[in-house]
Amino acid sequence: MNHAYVSVEGIARRYPGATIFEDLWFGVNRGEFVCLVGHSGCGKTTVLNILAGLEKPSDGEVIVDGQAIEGPSLDRAVIFQGHALMPWMTAEQNVAFALSCRHKDMPRAQLRDAAREALERVGLTAAADKKPSQLSGGMKQRVGIARAFAIAPKMLLMDEPFSALDALTRGALQDEVARLVSEADQTAFMITHDVDEAILLADRILLMTNGPDARLAEVVVNTLPRPRMRATLHKLPGYHALREHILDFLITRSRLMAQGLPADWNPRHAPEVRPGA
Amino acid sequence: MLIPFWRSSLLSLALLILFLGAWELALRSSAATGGSVVDAEYAALVGAAAAQGGQTPMPMPSEIAARLWQLLRDPFYVRGTNDQGIGVQIAYSLARVGIGFGLAALVAIPLGFAIGMSPLLGAVLNPFIQVLRPVSPLAWMPLALYTIKDSSISSVFVIFICSIWPMLLNTAFGVGSVRREWLNVARTLEAGSLKTAWRVILPAAAPTILTGMRISIGIAWLVIVAAEMLVGGTGIGYWVWNQWNNLSLADIVIAILMIGLVGLLLDRLLGWVAGAVAWQE
Amino acid sequence: MTRPTPFACGCAMPHQSGFACDAPTDGTGAFGAAADEAVLRAVFPAAPTRRAMLATFGSATLMAAIASVFPLGHAREAFAQTPAAPEKRDLKIGFIAITCATPIIMAKPMGFYERQGLNVDVIRTAGWAVIRDRAIAGEYDAAHMLAPMPLAMSLGVGVANPIPWSVAAIENINGQAITLAMKHRDKRNPRDWRGFRFAVPFDFSMHNYLLRDYLAEAGLDPDRDVQIRSVPPPEMVANLRADNIDGFLGPDPFNQRAVFDGVGFIHVLTKEMWDGHPCCAFAVPRSMVQTQPNTFAALLRAIVEATAHANKPENRREVARVVSAENYLNQPETVVQQVLTGTYADGLGQVQRVPNRVGFDPFPWHSMAIWMLTQMRRWGQLTRDVDYKGVAEQVYLALDAGRAMREAGIEVPASPMRSYVINGRTFDPNDPGPYLAAQPIRRN
């Protein structure tokens, strides 16, 4: 944990009269893919926003690369839950806008080429000149992904990026992201409540108790071998045990643990489990 | 069901012809009823209707059309300070509206931006805006004349003051309701505040701002006619007043038509711009 | 009480500090000095000279010296200077599109301004209040005003602050009329007019005062028995037509226009009420006399000459043609011609021939101003007593007009005061008190 790229140290989000989550400690290592899983209301999105620098925690801090974060950074790209594309820009312009922020002096033509290239990597060459309103939901999210990858961030933050998509599209995009992340050896942090998505993508899965006053209950290490493919995932040894463990947590333990944590539970070192290993 | 354009146009035209025809016929038949006969010398000194014991009637559409033709054949002549073509007058009015509206936009859009971005500033300025906004623009005229001491600048000021509110409020609203996620995108991309304002907030708020501008130009065009009637000098409003002076109703009907058409053109112009900056999700 | 010092006022006008800028006191003492000042100014047109003389001799000595050479006409001629170049050549003069403005208007196309080396733009203006406001704002160098307006402005009546303006010349005499709606063609006796709604062009107008006097002489209280509204002249005919008013005492060409359009008939010409009454004036800011004396003199010469030209019966048809154009009155030529020639349709089927229906005489009689002031007082526009004669002398520049008239070869009256018969009652300007007191209907 000492060599973690990101180190989350005791962050909390409190509002007058309500605490959303409290005393969160975890790390994300370089090249690691971490998923945060929990029910609605446990403050997952807030955790991601704090990592992105969009919000400040009520307490604690986040250290990235040895430095406490002060605000948003190009080094931590966000793929938003909604696609968050600017509707007045074409797909290409959306990506080029991000690129122009990364490369302030890049000439227009070069920005254009780089944007096309980024769209090509997600298979959207044909849609480059279309406005978001002319694209399907999946295509829009692909543009969002292309935009995030285009600026070559040190870390990718994803807030339930596929939750608004139909199952088929979601599957295709999950494979796409898995491929892109492994190609770039990308450090990534993702929020989801889709257990299979977490199992497919994550190296470690953080489980949060129900809110309010949510805590990090345990860290599940995903020992399933890579490369993983959606089609064959369920055939991998240990898959079922892992899935059972997480589902069990989400169905029962997340609620029970919200009422009372085990006596030996240490917020700084949530218990690490390796189901099926 | 979609009604074909040619069909509705044809019906509009028929309605117009029917209306004008009824107008013409009604006046022609009333003019035919002669009254007392007076001597030739007296008749030469008064209008045709008065010579027959009647009153000069409303002009007929045919008379108005003839006058319109006469005016439009040479719309841009200038024969002295008080006698200039209708095109020149419209140009004066448009120039005043253009300057007043342009200045209002220069003030309202940045200020609206600031209010939209800063809820505090919005709350501070809100009472003033709410009190000043419903004031009839012409109510400012005496104050403007008294302080500015120039009637032409005063009418520009009146245009300025009446066009500022819709633009200000719409800009503030448009900027204030820019989606948080777009702003977050800009923040995570470390886009500077200028770049965010220019590339994200402005285009996002543009349709709302344009709606405000469209309302403003409509009001400005309404008000300039009244303002020019009040202070005189030049402009289509003054022209109306002047023809009223001469009791020339044909000219007033023509002026109404012209004011309507120019107003429509202005609205279409901004409508076209609004279409260009519109976006849909 | 110390006597106010001349030239002491902050407005930089050479008037008594007790006049115009402060609320006037009872007046008599203060306005005596104002009269002296007017005389001094006529004798020594250049301000520095005048001040030097005053400083050297003192006011009383100087006035005594001048009094010895009175009447001033001779003194003026002795000091007359050859016309010097105008300080300002490009001038804007506002006018209202009525025949009263004839000299101001025609001086432009007929070259009277040009002959005096002036480049004048005459600007048609929307109404009396607008002309007053533009004049105050300095948009106009001089203006066509109703004869009582400069009096009211100088006294601070009807305006926020006293604005010193002067009547440099009267434009027209007579030339107004009471026009009634056709439906009243049988009600020719004003006693039958109870409940009528009348329009006049402005509160501070001869029209208002003449109508009120005419009604009062017929036993009608103009504030109680009838309604009198201020209506811009062009709208009078339309209002008459729409039956919003029963009649109006208004300027021409609108009386004649009502006849032309078959809307009304001419009940009586104002000439029958007071023959030779003034109506409109050529007004200048009082500062112009001081700061641009040559421009003022040139302008006044142009106006006086134009007025004389317009007054000649043989010129009237041509003048009618010139001023009725779209650039000026914007009226059918026959309407203006009927007004100026006095051969007109009366609206009742008769052709009337009254050659002096309207006349043009530039001389601003002080006695005219005094009558107007009595009427302002009578009807409550002026709520305090003022020195009528003093005010008249200061606002009505009879000396300057007289000089310009003499230069143009027009006979100048020996005194700016004379008495009148107005609606059958004799008015003595030297003793207006009894005239005012004898009025059966008044508000003061």
Automatic annotation (TrEMBL), chain A:
This is ABC transporter ATP-binding protein. PANTHER family: NITRATE ABC TRANSPORTER ATP-BINDING PROTEIN, TAURINE IMPORT ATP-BINDING PROTEIN-RELATED. Belongs to the ABC transporter superfamily. The lineage of its organism: Bacteria, Pseudomonadati, Pseudomonadota, Alphaproteobacteria, Acetobacterales. It is a peripheral membrane protein. GO terms for cellular component: plasma membrane. Keywords: ATP-binding, Cell membrane, Membrane, Nucleotide-binding, Transport. It comes from Plastoroseomonas arctica. Its main location: membrane. GO terms for molecular function: ATP binding; ATP hydrolysis activity; nitrate transmembrane transporter activity. InterPro entries: AAA+_ATPase, ABC_transporter-like_ATP-bd, ABC_transporter-like_CS, ABC_transporter_ATP-bind, NO3_transporter_ATP-bd-like, P-loop_NTPase.
TrEMBL record, chain B:
The chain crosses the membrane at residues 99-124, 154-173, 219-241, 247-266. Residues 90-270 form the ABC transmembrane type-1 domain. GO terms for cellular component: plasma membrane. InterPro entries: MetI-like, MetI-like_sf, NtrB. Signal peptide: none annotated. The keyword Transport applies. The keyword Transmembrane applies. CDD domains: TM_PBP2 (cd06261). Keywords: Cell inner membrane, Cell membrane, Ion transport, Membrane, Transmembrane, Transmembrane helix, Transport. It is found in: Cell inner membrane; Cell membrane. It is a multi-pass membrane protein. GO terms for molecular function: nitrate transmembrane transporter activity. It holds the Pfam family BPD_transp_1. Coiled coil: none annotated. GO terms for biological process: alkanesulfonate transmembrane transport; monoatomic ion transport. Belongs to the binding-protein-dependent transport system permease family. NCBIfam families: ntrB (TIGR01183). Probably part of an ABC transporter complex. Probably responsible for the translocation of the substrate across the membrane. This is Nitrate ABC transporter permease.
Automatic annotation (TrEMBL), chain C:
Keywords: Cell inner membrane, Cell membrane, Membrane, Transport. It comes from the Bacteria. Its main location: membrane. Gene3D superfamilies: Periplasmic binding protein-like II. Signal peptide: none annotated. PROSITE patterns: PROKAR_LIPOPROTEIN. Pfam families: NMT1_2. GO terms for cellular component: endomembrane system. It is found in: Endomembrane system. PANTHER family: ALIPHATIC SULFONATES-BINDING PROTEIN-RELATED, BLL4572 PROTEIN. This is ABC transporter substrate-binding protein. It comes from Plastoroseomonas arctica.
